[in-house]
Amino acid sequence: MVKGTAERLERQADIDAADQLPLTPWVPTLKYRWVRIHPTSVTGRLFRRGPEPDRY
Questions:
Q1: Do the Cβ atoms of 2 and 40 come closer than 8 Å?
Q2: Which 8-state DSSP code applies to residue 37?
Q3: CA 28, CA 52: separation in Å to the nearest integer?
Q4: Is 53:29 a contact under the CB 8 Å cutoff?
Q5: What residues have CB less than 8 Å from 31, skipping those under 6 apart?
Q6: What pLDDT does 18 receive?
Q7: Three-state DSSP class for 51?
Q8: Going by C-beta distance under 8 Å and a sequence separation of 6 or more, which residues neighbour residue 19?
Q9: How far, in Å, CA of 10 to CA of 54, rounded?
Protein backbone atom coordinates (compact mmCIF):
# COMPACT_ATOMS: atom_id res chain seq x y z
CA MET A 1 0.00 0.00 0.00
CA VAL A 2 1.35 3.40 -0.98
CA LYS A 3 -0.10 6.56 0.52
CA GLY A 4 0.73 9.96 -0.84
CA THR A 5 -0.19 12.63 -3.35
CA ALA A 6 -1.20 11.45 -6.83
CA GLU A 7 -1.00 13.25 -10.15
CA ARG A 8 -2.18 12.09 -13.57
CA LEU A 9 0.58 11.96 -16.17
CA GLU A 10 -0.24 14.35 -19.00
CA ARG A 11 3.04 14.87 -20.89
CA GLN A 12 3.67 12.31 -23.63
CA ALA A 13 7.32 11.97 -22.58
CA ASP A 14 6.21 10.97 -19.05
CA ILE A 15 3.64 8.51 -20.43
CA ASP A 16 6.21 6.96 -22.77
CA ALA A 17 8.66 6.56 -19.88
CA ALA A 18 5.96 4.98 -17.69
CA ASP A 19 5.08 2.53 -20.49
CA GLN A 20 8.67 1.24 -20.35
CA LEU A 21 8.59 0.48 -16.61
CA PRO A 22 8.18 -3.16 -15.50
CA LEU A 23 4.77 -2.50 -13.91
CA THR A 24 1.64 -4.63 -14.09
CA PRO A 25 -1.91 -3.75 -13.00
CA TRP A 26 -3.76 -5.63 -10.25
CA VAL A 27 -6.57 -6.35 -12.69
CA PRO A 28 -5.25 -7.65 -16.04
CA THR A 29 -7.00 -5.19 -18.35
CA LEU A 30 -5.63 -2.57 -20.70
CA LYS A 31 -4.84 0.76 -19.05
CA TYR A 32 -4.56 4.08 -20.86
CA ARG A 33 -4.03 6.47 -17.94
CA TRP A 34 -0.94 6.75 -15.78
CA VAL A 35 -0.80 8.19 -12.26
CA ARG A 36 2.39 9.18 -10.44
CA ILE A 37 2.27 8.86 -6.66
CA HIS A 38 4.60 10.90 -4.47
CA PRO A 39 4.67 8.53 -1.47
CA THR A 40 4.48 9.60 2.14
CA SER A 41 4.31 6.01 3.45
CA VAL A 42 4.74 2.51 2.04
CA THR A 43 3.55 -0.75 3.62
CA GLY A 44 2.50 -3.92 2.01
CA ARG A 45 2.26 -7.54 1.20
CA LEU A 46 2.70 -9.75 -1.86
CA PHE A 47 -0.16 -10.20 -4.33
CA ARG A 48 -0.10 -12.75 -7.17
CA ARG A 49 -1.57 -11.41 -10.42
CA GLY A 50 -2.51 -12.92 -13.75
CA PRO A 51 -0.98 -11.92 -17.07
CA GLU A 52 -1.77 -8.57 -18.66
CA PRO A 53 -3.21 -8.57 -22.20
CA ASP A 54 -1.25 -6.97 -25.05
CA ARG A 55 -1.69 -3.20 -25.14
CA TYR A 56 -1.58 -2.76 -28.92
A1: no
A2: E
A3: 4
A4: yes
A5: 25
A6: 93
A7: coil
A8: 34, 55
A9: 22
- Determine the length of the chain: 56
Q: What is the pTM of this model?
A: 0.62
- Exposure string over 5-22, b if 16+ CB within 10 A, otherwise e: eeeeeeeeeeeeeeeeee
Residue-wise pLDDT for 4-56, tens only, equals 999 999 999 999 999 999 887 777 788 889 999 999 999 987 777 777 777 76
- Distance from C-alpha of 31 to C-alpha of 34, rounded to nearest angstrom: 8
In Å, how far are 1, 7, 9, 43 from 38, measured between CA atoms? Answer: 13, 8, 12, 14
